[in-house]
Design brief:
The protein is an all-alpha fold. The chain has one domain. Helices cover about 60% and strands about 0% of the residues. The protein contains three helices and no strands. Helix 1 crosses helix 3 and helix 2 packs across helix 3. The protein is elongated.
Length: about 90
């Protein structure tokens, strides 16, 4: 499966993958530390969406969103929480 997402700071990939692992484990998913993107297959399976390791061009955008939404959404929520925590600690 090709990766179309590009992060602004490529050096941050390792930390973003670790964030994904931590967040998705906290949500109760089984996540392989070496392959954090594989969690999308667990989500797809739970939702009955036919996601494969190869071509997925037949998936609808709704199906893709149901898979990626929980991952990205939870990562964003955690990043916001961490930023708020940092701001509070800086004021102290």
């Amino acid at each position: 499966m090709g990766r179309n997402n590009r992060i602004l700071v490529p050096e941050a990939r390792k930390q973003l993958n670790q964030l994904k692992v931590d967040v998705m484990k906290a949500k109760g998913f089984t996540v392989d530390d070496e392959r954090p993107d594989a969690v999308k297959f667990e989500i797809a399976k739970e939702l009955g969406i036919p996601l494969s390791e190869e071509y997925n061009g037949k998936l609808t955008s709704e199906q893709a969103g149901k898979i990626g939404g929980p991952i990205g959404g939870n990562m964003v929520k955690e990043m916001v929480r961490l930023a708020q925590e940092q701001l509070i600690n800086e004021k102290s």
